[in-house]
Structures are given as structure tokens and as C-alpha cells.
Amino acid sequence: MVHSQSDQGFPYGMGFGRGRGFGRERLMRGHLTLIILEMIKERPRHGYDVIKAIEERFHGFYSPSAGSVYPILQELEDRDFVTSSKESDKKIYSITKDGERELKANKDKFSEMREHLRQQFGDMGRYGELMREMGYMTHFVFGKLREGGTRDTETIKKLRIAIANFKSEVEEILGEQKGD
Question: What pLDDT score was predicted for residue 24?
């Protein structure tokens, strides 16, 4: 069951993992295992590609750590749900018939999880682009700091003021919206 990003609501929801998103819940290992298996069903992937595909599917609100994904990939291979091959020094995983049967057998688990997350987070998916832009801005700022090697307190102070001003502007915009 492959979902596009344009689906109403999230295919898997959001807000889990690494303290990012809305809440500090952790994605249950069983769900992450099935999500990884589904990512591999879409097309053969290496571990890093699995991580990036999940991050994209969750619109940036969740990105599993390598420490979560690689042991699950090994477990899936041990259980004969995926096979692996080497390509350019990368281990590429492909789903097996047993893996497809496992996904099919657990489709109710996906449905329950999606419904729970839709109720909890509504239609937050429409904010995905905004969240990506904020992520790009964060990378930009830290990239510029690394480039310049600046650590002087005056620059840091100016950046903190700019961030506070941005936060105030956002609060003002959203406050105006409430008054409409």
C-alpha cells in the first residue's frame, strides 16, 4: 500500500522521534519495522536512503536514527523479509515474498496508527513546506557560522535578536489570524 505525499493526512503521521515535531513520543519499533519494509517494497534501497525516504514521508517531522534503522534492516534480513546485495560498497535491500506477506498481515496495524495520528494531529501536513523552509534557514545560519568561524559574542547577540524578532513577527501574524 503505497501512499503519495498528496494524500489527505499523513500516510504514517508525524511527531515522533529525536525530540522533533509535535511531542516527544517514540515511534514504536514494530511500526518502524513495517514502515521500513514498506519503503523497501516501493523500491530497493540502502540504509541511508531508507532514512531519507521516511523523513520525506513524515514531511520532516520524523527522521529515524541510523541506530534504529540498521538493526531493523538486519532483523528483516535475518527473518527473510528482505535480501541484500552489494552495489558500490552499499548494501541494497529488496523485499521478498515473505516480506510482502508480512506487510499484508499487518495492514490493520498501519490503519490503526494512521487513524490515531490523524485524530491527534489533524491536517498538519499542509505545514510541511513551511517546516522545510525553516529547516533550510537553520542549515543556512549554521553553515554561515561555520564558514566564517565567528564565535564573537556580538554576532551571536545580533542573531539572537533576529530570531526573537522573527518569533515576535510570527506571533503577531498568527495573533492577527485569531482576531479575524
Answer: 29
Instruction: For the chain, report the end-to-end CA distance as a whole number of angstroms.
Output: 41
* CATH 1.10.10.10 location in the chain: 29-123
pLDDT at 86: 93
Q: Are 88 and 48 in contact (CB under 8 A)?
A: no
* Residue 38 grid cell: 514498506
**Rg of the chain in Å (alpha carbons):** 20
Task: Say which residues have a Cβ less than 8 Å from residue 71's Cβ, sequence separation at least 6.
Answer: none
In terms of pTM, does the model score above 0.70?
A: no
| Residue linked to cell 531493523 | 72
29-123: CATH topology is: Arc Repressor Mutant, subunit A (1.10.10)
Q: What is the pLDDT of residue 59?
A: 63
Cell of 62: 520524523
Question: How many Cα atoms sit within 13 Å of 122 on the Cβ side?
Answer: 3
